[in-house]
Each structure stands twice: as structure tokens, then as C-alpha cells.
Amino acid sequence: MKVVVIIPTYNEKGNVRPLINSLLNVFRSISHDMHILFVDDNSPDNTAEIIQKECQKHSNIHLITGEKKGLGAAYIRGMQYAADCLKADVLMEMDADFSHKPEDIPRLLSAIDKGADFVIGSRYVRGGKIPRDWAFWRKLNSKWGNFFARYIAGLYKIRDCTAGFRAIRVSVIKKIYLTNLKVKGYAFQIALLHRAVASHAVVREVPVEFIDRVEGETKLGLADILEFIINVFWIRFNNSRTFIRFAIVGTSGVVVNLTVFTVLVHSGINKFIASPVATEVSILSNFLLNNFWTFRERISKDIIPLKGLKFNVVSLIALGFSFFTFILLSFLFPDAAPQVHQAIGIIPATLINYFLNSYWTFKDHDHS
Ligand SMILES: Nc1nc2c(ncn2[C@@H]2O[C@H](COP(=O)(O)OP(=O)(O)OP(=O)(O)O)[C@@H](O)[C@H]2O)c(=O)[nH]1
Ligand SMILES: [Mg+2]
Q1: Residue 229 shares a structural domain with residue 185
Q2: What is the pLDDT of residue 274?
Q3: SS3 state of residue 35
Q4: How close is the Cα of 94 to the center of ligand 2, in Å?
Q5: What range defines the domain where residue 34 resides?
Q6: Are 168 and 297 members of one domain?
Q7: From CA 343, how far away is CA 153, in angstroms rounded?
Q8: pLDDT of 281
Q9: Together in a domain, 233 and 268
Q10: What is the residue with the minimal CA distance to atom 31 of ligand 1?
């Protein structure tokens, strides 16, 4: 197995040589074909020149250079190069400043050997550590970053979403269109993790101790924090897009229902016939819109009439839920206006409607 440790560098002249020595030392205890790829963004302190000298001495050290566009952009270039030109099987992400201990690499790789696709050197699982002397704001920054990623972007199963010490199978990277990740800075870490989780990669967290840098300066800036927050909300929005579409279709159904009812009654049809007809027409229009818009990416084994029938069954179940809520609330809060009971009933009805249609009527047979 060929493993390429990708290390982005920007003004790390004091760190690269000791880091290379330390890595080469650790590589001796690993049975895989180990390589290092530095991605230097034309550091003004001439980091690249130091690396270049090491490349001449060791055939497993590589360097690519480029314009400074941020950590994410550097990783994207590095990963593409490692996968396509170096033909790596596994990629690793690692900082140049000794925040990630080279001695932890074997443990990360052994999780890959045991079948994981995406291994995170995690500070926030049992056994993982952050520096004791981290100032309050620094801890808060890191904790908030993770809180945001876990609960807003929906990566709640993962404790350390922002970690920059990882081992990833190239097969996972190949499923993710890296150039489509519109992130330049540190937000790359969660954008990549989110895509990996969405493509059903097996994610494992291995505890590591994070050490503060001694040499050089931090490069994390305000623009990075802003990009991070925007990205987290963007991921959330994308995740809820199907539900938003479903709610829009539902609202359109109310309009269709009332319009058809009014037209029928005005053309002299009995209101007790007009009512169920209008409801069924709105169910059918909802079904068609959901089939051809909301869930259009889903691949189904069922023919359209069968899906339409399922959609009707789900509507009936949702009606049951709404009616049950109405009765329950009428008994519990007899003094409140019945319109309130009826309106609150819409909430469970919509949720059950969405849930059943999403997991049954429009079930995606591609991912089952
Ligand atoms: N190529 C490249 N590398 C970068 C860029 N920004 C940061 N890096 C590198 O990415 C790694 C992580 O950056 P750091 O500044 O250490 O960020 P951090 O670890 O969040 O912050 P500290 O804890 O203060 O070190 C280091 O190896 C940096 O040299 C960039 O724009 N381009
Ligand atoms: Mg660092």
C-alpha cells in the first residue's frame, strides 16, 4: 500500500527539516510504502528551497509549489497530485508545525488496515488531548468550530470534525469531486469530511494529543473563520433542500385544493362531492411535483402509478395523525380555539408525510 503524507507549508522554514527527520524515522517502523508530499505556496521565507534539498537526498520526498490561495486550495492540489501522479492508495493530512505527532501515524494507518476509509486523529474522543495551557478563547474557538460542524452541518456522530490529522483512502477521494468543493481555507476540513460521510465512507476516530506549535506563526485568520461558518450553514441548507422543496410543494397543494374546490362549487357541483375531489386533485398534483422535482434524483424500482398509490396511502396516514392530534389537543386544551388545534395538527402530519414518502414512496434504490 502506497501512503502519501501531504503537508501544506507556508513559512515553515524552522520546522520542515526536523519534521522530515522525524517522519523518516517513524516510517522505518511502518511496512507500507511511505512518501511525503509538501505543498508549499511560494513561502517568502524560502521553505521550498530547504525541502528541495531534501527531495534530492530522498526519493520518497516530493514537493509541489504554487500560488497562495489558502489551506484548502493547497490540500486539493496536493490530493490530486498524490492520487493521479504518485498513484497513492492512502493519503494523509498533517501540519508542518509538529502539532501532530509523527509517532501517531502508525496508529492512524492501522485503523485503515482494519477496514476504515477515513481516519481522524481526534482530540475529542477518550484519550485525545488539547494543550492544557490553551487560553479560554482558543478552547472556545475549537469547541465552537466542532459544535457548529456537528450540530449545524449534521456531522454529529463525529467528535473532531475540524482536525487536520487524517488518513483517507484514495477510493474515497475519487468519489468526491475535489474541485467542486468551493472552499479555500480551513473550511476544507469539514467540507471534505461531509462529502466523505455522504458517500458512506467508514469513519473512525483515533485519539491523539495535539501539541502547540513552537516554531513559526499561526496562519488562521478571520477570513478563514467566516468561510468556515458560511460553509457549515451551506452544508445544512443543502441537506435540508429536499425538505424545503417538499414544504413548498405542500403549500402549493393547499392552493390547488382550494382553487379546485371553488371552481367545482361555482360550476354547480355538490360541495360534498367537490371536497374529496379537490383533495384528491391536490394529492395528485403534490405527487407529480414531488416525483419530478423534490425527489427527482432518487432512483426508484417502482412504476409511477404504484408510487402515486403509495403517496395516497401516506396522505391517508398523515390525515390520521393530524386528526389524532386534533382530538388530543381538543381534550387537553378545550378552551383554545379549534383553529389552533387544527393548525398544530399540520406539524406531525407534515413530518410523517415527509418521512414516509422519503423512505418509502420515493426510496432511493441506488443506496440501499
Ligand atoms: N500551502 C499552504 N499551507 C498553509 C496555508 N495556510 C496554512 N498552511 C499550513 O497548514 C498547516 C496548518 O496551519 P497553522 O497555521 O499551523 O494552523 P493551525 O494549526 O490551525 O494554527 P496553530 O495552532 O496556531 O499552529 C501548517 O503546516 C501551515 O504551514 C496556505 O495558505 N498554503
Ligand atoms: Mg498549527
Answers
A1: yes
A2: 92
A3: strand
A4: 9
A5: 2-239
A6: no
A7: 30
A8: 95
A9: no
A10: 70
Q: Say whether both 119 and 268 belong to one domain.
A: no
At position 230, the amino acid (one-letter code) is: I
Q: pLDDT digits over 313-327, tens only?
A: 999 999 999 899 999
Cell of 266: 361555482
* Residues 81, 6: Cα–Cα separation, whole Å: 10
Ligand 1: atom nearest CA of 96 is 27
pLDDT on residue 192: 96
Q: Is 9 in the pocket of ligand 1 (CB under 6 A)?
A: yes
In this structure, which long-range contacts are made by residues 354-359, counting pairs with CB atoms below 8 Å and at least 24 apart in sequence? 354/243, 354/246, 356/314, 356/317, 356/318, 357/246, 357/290, 357/295, 357/310, 357/311, 357/314, 358/242, 358/246, 358/295
Instruction: Report residue 169: phi and psi, to 5°.
Output: -70, 140
Which contiguous run of DSSP H or E holds residue 290?
Answer: none
Helix (H) or strand (E) holding 169: strand 166-169
In a domain, 76, yes or no: yes
Instruction: Say how far apart CA 234 and CA 121 lie, in whole Å.
Output: 25
Reference 78, options 41, 38, 35, 24; nearest CA is: 38
For residue 224 and ligand 1, the question of a CB distance below 6 A is answered with no
Choose among 70, 73, 171, 82: nearest CA to 118: 171
- Determine how many CB atoms are found less than 10 A away from the CB of residue 209: 16
Is 100 within a domain?
yes
Q: Which of 239, 267, 286 is the last residue of a domain?
A: 239
User: How far is it, in rounded angstroms, from Cα 64 to Cα 36?
Assistant: 11
Low-confidence ranges of the chain (pLDDT < 70): 366-368
Residue 241, pLDDT score: 84
Q: What is the pLDDT of residue 367?
A: 45
Task: Kindly state whether residue 366 falls inside one of the protein's structural domains.
Answer: no
Identify the bridge partners of residue 33 per DSSP, sorted by sequence position: 2
Looking at the fold, whether 170 and 245 belong to one and the same domain comes out as no
Ligand 1: does its nearest atom lie under 6 Å from the Cβ of 185?
no
Query: What is the total count of domains within the chain?
Result: 2
In a domain, 368, yes or no: no
Assign 175 to helix, strand or coil: helix
Domain check: are 206 and 255 in the same one? no
Is any atom of ligand 1 closer than 6 Å to the C-beta of 101?
Answer: no
Q: Is the CB of 93 under 6 A from ligand 1?
A: no
